[in-house]
Write a structure and sequence with these properties.
Layout: H1 9-18, E1 23-32, E2 35-47, H2 49-52, H3 60-73, E3 75-80, E4 91-93, H4 100-122, E5 126-135, H5 144-149, E6 153-164, H6 172-178, H7 181-193, E7 198-201, H8 204-209, H9 211-222, H10 236-244, E8 248-255, E9 258-268, E10 271-279, H11 281-286, H12 289-303, E11 308-312, H13 316-320, E12 325-335, H14 338-351
Parallel strand pairs: 3-5, 10-11
Antiparallel strand pairs: 1-2, 2-3, 2-4, 5-12, 6-11, 6-12, 7-8, 8-9, 9-10
Length: 365
C-alpha cells in the first residue's frame, strides 16, 4: 500500500516484534473472489486502571470522575485502526472494486467474529469497539445509517495539528522570513537558549547503544501525560529503524556526550509524521528543548520537500505557535453493554475533555 507507510509490511512487521505489551494486532483481508480489494488493521488493547490516568494531582471530584471513566473503559477494547499514532491508519479499500458501505459492513462483521474468537481462545471480553480518527471531510461520514444501525456513537476528539508547507518555503530561512516580528524573536530566543546542546541524526548502531537512555527519556514525557493507554517497549525505536531504514529518522540532542533529548519522524509519502519523543525535564525548561524540536521538525520537513508536517495531538498551543493548524478529528465507538453504550458518548467526554487553549498565528498576514 504505497499510499500509507503505516499499512505497509515493514511497519507492521516491526509492530509484531515491538508493540506495547497490552496491544495485540489482527489483520482483516476483504476479497472479491480471489482478489484482495481491501484491508483493515485491528488492535486488541488491554486498558489498565493504573495506566489510564497517570497524573493523580487532581481534586476529589475529578478523581471520582476518573474512577468512573476507568471502570467503564477498563478491560479490552477493539480498535479499528492504530492506537499508537494519530490519524486514520487502519483502513484501505479499492473504491473501483467495492463500495465503501459494503467494505465497512464486512469489516464490522469480521470485527464481531474476532470479538467472539478472542472470548473463546483468550478468555477476554471486548468491552468497546472503536473506529479511530477520521477528518471531518472523510467519506466514511457519509455512512451515518451504517453507524446508527450498529449503534456506534460519533465523538469529536482532540484535533490533529498540521503545518502545511508553503511552496515558496525552500529552507528554514524562508520559514523564518514568513514569521511576524514577535515570533521571529521567539525563534531566535529558543535557538539562543539551546546553548551548547547539539542535534545529530542517530544511525541504527547509535540507537542500539543508547536504547535504554532513549526509552528513559521517552518515559519521562509519557509518564507526565494526563491520559495514556500504553508504554512503548525499549526495542521499539531500534526495530523501526531496522524495518523502515531511511523512512524512519531519529535525532538526538547532546550536551557534551550526554543524550538529553530526542525526537523521531516517519517519512510517509508527502507527509512528514512526527512520532514519539523524549527529553530530560531539566533541559526542557532551561534550554527550551521541546520548542527547538518543533522548529527542527519544521526545518526537516521544509528542506526535504514535504507538503505537510503532521504534529499530531497534545501540546496544541505551542504547536500552533510554530504554525501548525488544528484539524478536527472524529471517532466512532460502541460499548458492548447496551446500557453503558447508551451513555458512552457522555462518559467519553470526561475522558477526552475540550481543552481551553489559544491558537497562535505566527505568520505575517
Amino acid at each position: 500500500m504505497a499510499h500509507d507507510i503505516f499499512l505497509q509490511r515493514n511497519y507492521l512487521k516491526c509492530l509484531e516484534h515491538a508493540s506495547p505489551i497490552n496491544i495485540q494486532l489482527f489483520y482483516i483481508g476483504i476479497f472479491n473472489e480471489e482478489t484482495l480489494v481491501g484491508i483493515a488493521i485491528l488492535q486488541r488493547v488491554q486498558l489498565y486502571l493504573k495506566d489510564m490516568f497517570r497524573n493523580t494531582k487532581v481534586s476529589c471530584f475529578k478523581e471520582f470522575i476518573k474512577d468512573v471513566v476507568s471502570k467503564v473503559l477498563k478491560g479490552n477494547i477493539l480498535v479499528v485502526g492504530n492506537l499508537m499514532h494519530t490519524g486514520q491508519h487502519g483502513l484501505f479499500f479499492q473504491k473501483e472494486n467495492i463500495s465503501q458501505l459494503n467494505y465497512l459492513e464486512l469489516v464490522f462483521e469480521a470485527a464481531e467474529t474476532l470479538k467472539k474468537e478472542i472470548k473463546v481462545k483468550q478468555g477476554k471480553t471486548i468491552r468497546v469497539i472503536m473506529f479511530k480518527d477520521y477528518f471531518e471531510d472523510d467519506t466514511i461520514h457519509f455512512e451515518h445509517d451504517f453507524f446508527n444501525e450498529k449503534k456506534l456513537h460519533k465523538v469529536t476528539v482532540q484535533p490533529n495539528m498540521m503545518l502545511p508547507i508553503k511552496p515558496e518555503w525552500l529552507t528554514i530561512n524562508d520559514y523564518f522570513s514568513a514569521l511576524s516580528k514577535k515570533y521571529k524573536l521567539r525563534f531566535k530566543r529558543a535557538k539562543t537558549k539551546l546553548g551548547s546542546i547539539k542535534s545529530e541524526e542517530l544511525n541504527v548502531e547509535t540507537l542500539r547503544e543508547n536504547s535504554k537512555k532513549l526509552h528513559d527519556l521517552y518515559l519521562n514525557v509519557s509518564n507526565n501525560a494526563e491520559f495514556n493507554t500504553f508504554f512503548l517497549p525499549e526495542n521499539h525505536f531500534v526495530c523501526l529503524k531496522e524495518s523502515l531504514q531511511e523512512n524512519f529518522k531519529v535525532f538526538g540532542y547532546f550536551l557534551d556526550a550526554e543524550l538529553v533529548g530526542f525526537y523521531t519522524l516517519i517519512l510517509n509519502s508527502n507527509n512528514l509524521e512526527t512520532y514519539f519523543l523524549g527529553y530530560d525535564s531539566e533541559h526542557q525548561y532551561n534550554n527550551q528543548l521541546y520548542l527547538n524540536m518543533l522548529y527542527d521538525m519544521a526545518k526537516y520537513g521544509i528542506e526535504n520537500g514535504f507538503s505537510n508536517i503532521v504534529y499530531a495531538r497534545t501540546a496544541m498551543e505551542i504547536k500552533s505557535s510554530v504554525g501548525a493548524k488544528p484539524k478536527a478529528m472524529l471517532i466512532y465507538l460502541k460499548h458492548t453493554n447496551s446500557l453503558i453504550n447508551a451513555i458512552l458518548k457522555q462518559v467519553f467526554r470526561f475522558m477526552n475533555p475540550t481543552q481551553n487553549w489559544e491558537e497562535r498565528h505566527p505568520f505575517n498576514q
